[in-house]
Design brief:
single chain; alpha/beta; Beta-Lactamase; Hypothetical protein af1432; five-stranded parallel beta sheet; 20 helices; 10 strands; 52% helix
């Protein structure tokens, strides 16, 4: 019986050549929990039988053209799982006994029969069918599951065929002792497995273990085990184990992990390549995005960002000026102050950057962080004029790191102001334009490591 058959409504087919009998059965069984089908002849009933939706057939014995027992013999050949019952008032006892003995029918009932008695008999068979279907389904699911049992008091073990197949243990070994039962376990895993088994015994708690086995031809395979202990005073004391081979799952997981590492490495290199595009056009800011990324990541780490958010922050920092690829190169390298029109064009770079990377499937909103890195707490930033909590936490951190690195470093329109001057400027805007926690965190980094930026530049130059 398939899964769909186990969950569908069960059905009983009544076959009788007397319409009045079928009508009476239909009326008396209107409250039954099973579906009811009715056929006025054996030939009509066979069409329903072949549909596969019938669980029990109740047939009259004496019907024109074909007797009930002959009809049920055909049912047995076509659908042997169907329960076959004779319900008649005119049957030959010898013929019915012969039908029972040959397996053509399961039961013989005589008319008249009380409705409650008939329902109880049918429900008994239907329950048995449901139970058998459940067992069949479980067996199909667990035919690859090995089972073993340790009689702790007798210090003997027993196991099923699946265990012998998975663990490469002979079935004719008799009641083996525990160490020999697991002799195929990899020598590096054997002591730990036995320790887990004994811990299950001593603690009375279920335990789980993954370990390797070595097959007779030297192949290593992975097995997972689940164990539980049963105690009944001093009379019964057993430990039960179930195991299955998970080598295929392990190999798939390893392959998936390797692919993920490759994809992550590819994405990381792509991010670095995109970041260098801007710096190639603007040599004065070469390394700016990388230095901001180092600084922002350290700030985020100290501020308690989880690894996923830290990764998103670092990626956004590496790409935060990618939108400047849209800005004419002469604006980027102009030694004097930009005119208003030139500055307005420069202010488009967060939006351009957002457009460039918004379709890359980062695990964090990297494109939005890039879009917001020039927003300010009081709404004076751009491009959206966002305020306070409207700005992503990572964008608030990036804003502080970006301003600090830019002010500390040389630009065509001014010399580098140095870390102290940059830090003073950030303190002025603390809580007004810049996130106060981010500013405090940056100040703590610079107090502990005054040469933080210099060290990053040194690493960039050496690379």
């Amino acid at each position: 019986m398939t899964t769909n058959q186990r969950h569908r409504e069960q059905a009983v087919l009544f076959v009788d050549d007397e319409p009045a009998v079928l009508l009476g059965l239909n009326r008396s069984l209107h409250n039954a929990t099973f579906r009811r089908h009715f056929a006025g002849s054996a030939f009509q009933a066979l069409e329903l039988i072949d549909s596969g939706d019938i669980d029990i057939v109740v047939a009259d014995e004496q019907m024109p053209g074909m007797s009930g027992s002959d009809f049920l013999a055909i049912v047995r050949n076509r659908q042997p799982r169907i329960i076959r019952i004779i319900l008649t008032g005119h049957a030959s006892l010898e013929r019915v006994i012969a039908a029972i003995n040959t397996g053509q029918i399961h039961r013989f009932l005589t008319k008249p029969i009380e409705t409650q008695q008939l329902v109880e008999i049918l429900e008994e068979y239907l329950t048995a069918l449901r139970l058998q279907a459940t067992k069949t389904a479980l067996n199909s699911r667990t035919d690859t599951v090995g089972r073993w049992e340790w009689d702790i008091l007798e210090d003997t073990c027993s196991w099923n065929e699946s265990f012998a197949r998975i663990m490469h243990t002979r079935m004719d070994d008799g009641n083996a002792r525990l160490p020999s039962l697991f002799s195929s376990v990899h020598i590096e895993d054997r002591a730990e497995l036995l320790s887990i088994i004994h811990n299950c015994r001593d603690s009375g708690q279920t335990r789980e273990a993954e370990h390797r086995i070595v097959t007779p031809d030297g192949e290593e395979r992975w097995v997972i085990q689940f164990m539980d202990v049963f105690r009944d005073g001093d009379r019964v004391w057993k430990l039960f184990g179930m195991l299955r081979d998970i080598t295929d799952q392990k190999e798939k997981a390893t392959l998936l992990a390797e692919r993920m590492v490759m994809l992550q490495a590819t994405l990381s290199k792509t991010v670095e390549a995109l970041g260098r595009v801007t710096e190639i056009r603007d040599p004065y800011t070469a390394g700016h995005q990388a230095r901001v990324a180092h600084l922002a990541k350290e700030m985020g780490r100290r501020m308690g960002l989880d690894p996923r958010c830290l990764e998103g922050l670092e990626t956004a920092a590496k790409l935060h000026d990618i939108g400047k690829i849209y800005v004419p190169a002469e604006f980027l390298t102009k030694p004097g102050t930009l005119r208003e029109a030139e500055m307005n064009l420069m202010k488009y770079h967060p939006e351009i950057g957002h457009q460039i990377i918004q379709d890359i499937p980062f695990s964090m909103p990297v494109a939005n962080i890039v879009l917001q890195h020039h927003e300010r707490l009081n709404g004076s930033g751009y491009p959206g004029g966002l305020k306070e909590e409207e700005i992503l936490p990572e964008a608030r951190i990036l804003a502080v790191a970006d301003v600090f690195e830019a002010m500390s470093s040389y630009r065509p329109y001014r010399p580098g102001l140095g870390p102290e001057a940059a830090m003073r400027e950030l303190r002025k805007g603390k809580g007004i334009t810049f996130d106060p926690t981010a500013v405090d965190t940056l100040e703590g980094i610079m107090e502990e490591h005054p040469d933080f930026l210099s060290n990053i530049r040194a690493m960039d130059n050496s690379g």
